[in-house]
């Protein structure tokens, strides 16, 4: 999802133009013409003529999850029935070829084996803990709907102690199909451990910060999407919805701030953006929220900064998502200026586009809004590589994993540097951090 916002640098890339042209060249149907896919199978479609935040929000309110934002269109994932309904509402859809179908030297999708499985992630965590016992610990903070462990890793110089230091949280894989985010978690685990004592900046930061990493918020969805032998394009968790055959809640619409308030999620259990019957109804959301609440010590939230990693679009996003307004109740001018300045500084390190979340379209019940409004945590959402479906969409090839995870190294270190007082970036530390 990539779009320019509020006079910031132009973000619509030549790659996006090429992507659409190549999609048309390599098998895309004509606008509104649906391919002969079996009922229930899903694929991506370009939806033309959707080029403002209001128009994107209007499309999202049909229950459609928007995968990618282009200058004058969006890309969505839909099954044939959903695509037909949207065509009936007047939207102009063009079916895109799946990345795995592209040939002739075009980038293709990964194979499931390109990414670590859930079990391999746990093995890597255990290995790091064994190799760096004074630096790494881990704990099971709860379990998914199907009973899988949700693990939080702690990294700090004196890991066994709960020191009075700023804490920074990194969460990954809220959406099942976004496997590159799990690789991002494993990269951070490796980089922060292997470089401690060697890299002066990492050493200084881990001596003065406590880092938490949750590699997979949605392990059931990850397993379901990855481990059948082929990707399923699955987004939600795997919790059945009572009274319907539909399965799953969109975890990033299930958080308990402005839940279901503003047309930024769906009340339909079959929708990819289904918000669930109530806030924190998904066990995975509740587990992570409870963990964050557990970090309130002496009435003070110890976690000061947070990144929730997603794919794709190469964006740095910040609250609020539920309103187009730059400021709102609980988000002052200084707060907004700090988010903008720090978000821009993060984006300057990785080449992503910085913008307020609602510059894309309205969302409600999102983790970033909850982290800030409920817990006072400076929370950012990173949409990782690629910029478009052309680069593999949700399933970029495994060959890009080292490059695209390392690409966020400096952004992570920058956030850690400002974790003691984010307001320092606007020169307001004396007012807020004394």
From TrEMBL:
Transmembrane domains' residue ranges: none
Pfam assignment, any one: Peptidase_M14
Essential cofactor(s): Zn(2+)
Signal peptide (UniProt feature, chain positions): 1-33
Keyword line: Hydrolase, Metal-binding, Metalloprotease, Protease, Signal, Zinc
Classification via InterPro entries: CARBOXYPEPT_ZN_1 (IPR057246), Carboxypeptidase_T (IPR033810), Peptidase_M14 (IPR000834)
Annotated catalytic residues: 383
Gene3D superfamilies registered for this protein in UniProt: Zn peptidases
Ranges where the Peptidase M14 domain occurs: 114-419
CDD domains: M14_CPT
PANTHER family, alphabetized: PROTEASE FAMILY M14 CARBOXYPEPTIDASE A,B, SLL0236 PROTEIN
Family classification: Belongs to the peptidase M14 family.
Protein name in UniProt: M14 family metallopeptidase
Naturally occurring in which organism (per UniProt): Streptomyces boetiae
